[in-house]
Amino acid sequence: MIALKITNIKQFMAKLLGGEDFDSFLLEEASISTYNTFMIDGHQNREFYSTEEWEDKELRPYELSTWKKLRPICFDLIKGKHTPTSFRFVLHLIPEHIAPILQKGDTAVTPQQVRAFVLNIKYDGTTLMLVTGTSFHTFLMDKTPDILWDNAVTQFLAKRDISYEKL
After folding, report:
1. pTM given for the model
2. Which of 118, 89, 119 is nearest to 17 (CA)?
3. Is 152 exposed, middle or buried (0-12, 13-18, 19+ CB in 10 A)?
């Protein structure tokens, strides 16, 4: 787990909300405080879908909704004359991207053991922080996946020219 302070918040927000840079993530949850506090649960609602739709892996490939689908909603809640008082996004890397990250290291951990590579994004009104995390289906002693995910996030940011300070 690493904590990164974003040094150019406006540039980061343009990439997060206005571009496709983060579309390889799923949204677990969002909290956006502007004139109200808006909460979004990214878990897809079973009752909304027919049985056929729920079981259709092309229509609904993930338990969580994609950031790409929810990004415009979050953008609409944040945009305006006033800066949000705070927000928090909990993003999970799309599962197909887990195996390539694990392959970059010397680990016996399999993609099936990884529940999620997580990116927490938190803004408190002045500071925007990113915190990485990993979630596994069971306890693992091997911390290599944590290090590989931390490295993948810093490479992701560098590739997109997003500046940060490591804390």
Report:
1. 0.94
2. 89
3. buried
